[in-house]
């Protein structure tokens, strides 16, 4: 499925979120008031709550179903191109990377820990200390799953040190034609590499991934560099098949590896800045000179796709992902009482809680455990990666002194529609009152 990100769907500013929530509540409240006061509107059916639900069961991985490879694909996305064969499964390290306990496939908890929160639909997950590398709790940590767009964390780790962030590039039709989620790069548009990284990390733009990988030598060369870095970091369950996270032959990662890759990416100050950024303005692109009806495409705001960033106190930032085969994937970090934790989810569902809500539950659980709780560790990648530091970069702090963001045109349009909905509901109520009064006079 090709998804086109509408340029005016971005809504990152806190003010805009508050307005939208208030307006939506007002609409719902007025609608409920009209039904209670006057009964159902003529010709309008009331929404009935569902009377049937499918019981939720946390996936059981005790028998290690994904020890060697991800679950079978449900589509043809991993069929090799003509003349090529699918790569063999990655070797299984022995002993397990990170410690003996991490070789288990079910839920693994430190001694004395209580049960994990209910409602975690992720088939595999992990919570670890971002600073020390200690793994605090996990489920099937080395089980192999598809990363979807969380693999962009690895792409960013390769590209940010390699590319000049201030260099400008011209968007191409090939960028614009990228499959999957696109931020809205257009042919002839002028973009700095920093803006491409914003689109990649904040909005998961596959068009941005294409523009970045082109500068790194093309998709095949970029994937080779990503896999070389994964191996160097001892993320040995990980193999990228595409730069963007679209499924391909041999694509694989694990909950353990994803935490490790995110921890490494957080040593890059630009990455730490962008995962924590809520909204930025993104450039437009010129009209197609071959199309007399086309017009210039103005710039637009883009917002961070990670809802944990907006909803969880102490959230540092993270990356979302989804494909039909990978399902919901997620990696994020948060800080509390001087401790910074990273949480990963693989092959999750949106029920009974959305991925960011499941991540919040696991973070709350891990923050409540004793400080020394551990079931394993992540290797110190700083000793293995040139020009990296074990000291993790801190995202920019928000302060009350920061000026409020000016509302964007797209946000204004959205809020205008909500205002009209509220006004329309009020008008319906007034008309119903008038009609009742006229009816009584007859």
Provide a quick synopsis of the model:
The chain is α+β, with helices and mostly antiparallel strands and 442 residues long. It has eleven helices and eleven strands.
Task: Spell out the blueprint of helices and strands.
Layout: H1 14-38, E1 107-108, E2 124-129, E3 134-139, H2 152-162, E4 168-170, H3 173-176, E5 190-192, H4 193-202, H5 206-215, H6 219-232, H7 255-265, H8 269-275, E6 279-282, E7 300-303, H9 308-311, E8 315-323, E9 327-336, E10 339-348, H10 355-367, E11 376-377, H11 409-441
Antiparallel strand pairs: 1-3, 2-3, 2-10, 3-11, 4-5, 6-7, 8-9, 9-10
What does this structure look like?
The protein is globular and about 70 Å long. The N terminus and C terminus are likely disordered. Strands 1, 2, 3, 8, 9, 10 and 11 form a seven-stranded antiparallel beta sheet that branches. A two-stranded antiparallel sheet has the order 4-5. It has two domains: 69 residues, no CATH class; 284 residues, 3-Layer(aba) Sandwich (Beta-lactamase). The protein has 442 residues and is α+β, with helices and mostly antiparallel strands. Helix 2 packs across helix 6, helix 2 runs parallel beside helix 7 and helix 4 packs across helix 5. The termini are far apart. The protein is built from eleven helices and eleven strands.
């Amino acid at each position: 499925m090709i998804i086109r990100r509408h340029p005016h769907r971005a809504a990152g500013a806190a003010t805009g979120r508050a307005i939208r929530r208030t307006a939506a509540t007002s609409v719902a409240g007025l609608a409920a008031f009209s039904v209670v006061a006057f009964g159902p509107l003529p010709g309008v059916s009331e929404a009935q709550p569902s009377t049937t639900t499918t019981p939720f069961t946390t996936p059981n991985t005790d028998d290690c179903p994904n020890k060697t490879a991800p679950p079978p694909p449900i589509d043809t996305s991993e069929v090799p191109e003509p003349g090529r064969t699918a790569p063999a499964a990655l070797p299984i390290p022995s002993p397990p990377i990170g410690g003996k306990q991490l070789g288990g496939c079910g839920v693994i908890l430190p001694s004395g820990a209580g049960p994990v929160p209910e409602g975690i639909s992720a088939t595999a997950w992990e919570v670890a200390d971002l600073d020390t590398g200690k793994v605090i709790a996990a489920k099937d940590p080395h089980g192999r799953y598809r990363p979807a767009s969380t693999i962009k964390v690895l792409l960013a780790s390769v590209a940010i040190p390699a590319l000049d962030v201030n260099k400008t590039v011209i968007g191409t039709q090939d960028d614009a034609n990228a499959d999957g989620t696109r931020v809205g790069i257009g042919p002839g548009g002028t973009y700095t590499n920093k803006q491409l990284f914003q689109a990649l990390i904040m909005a998961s733009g596959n068009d941005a991934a294409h523009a970045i990988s082109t500068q790194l030598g093309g998709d095949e060369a970029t994937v080779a560099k990503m896999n070389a870095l994964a191996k160097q970091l001892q993320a040995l369950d990980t193999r990228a098949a595409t730069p963007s996270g679209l499924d391909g032959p041999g694509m694989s990662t694990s909950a353990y590896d994803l935490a490790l890759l995110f921890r490494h990416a957080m040593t890059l100050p630009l990455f730490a800045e962008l995962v924590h950024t809520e909204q930025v303005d993104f450039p437009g692109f010129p009209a197609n000179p071959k199309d007399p009806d086309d017009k210039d495409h103005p710039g637009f705001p883009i917002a961070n796709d990670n809802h944990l960033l907006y909803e969880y106190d102490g959230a540092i930032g993270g990356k979302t992902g989804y494909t039909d085969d990978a399902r919901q994937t997620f990696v994020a970090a948060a800080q509390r009482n001087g401790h910074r934790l990273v949480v990963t989810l693989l092959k999750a569902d949106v029920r009974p809680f959305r991925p960011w809500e499941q991540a919040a539950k696991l973070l709350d659980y891990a923050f409540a455990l004793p400080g020394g709780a551990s079931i394993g560790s992540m290797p110190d990648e700083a000793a293995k990666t040139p020009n990296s530091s074990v000291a993790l970069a801190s995202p920019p702090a928000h302060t009350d002194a920061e000026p409020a963001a000016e509302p964007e045109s797209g946000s204004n349009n959205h809020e205008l529609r909500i205002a009209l909905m509220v006004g329309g509901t009020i008008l319906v109520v007034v008309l119903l009152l008038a009609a009742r009064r006229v009816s009584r006079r007859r």
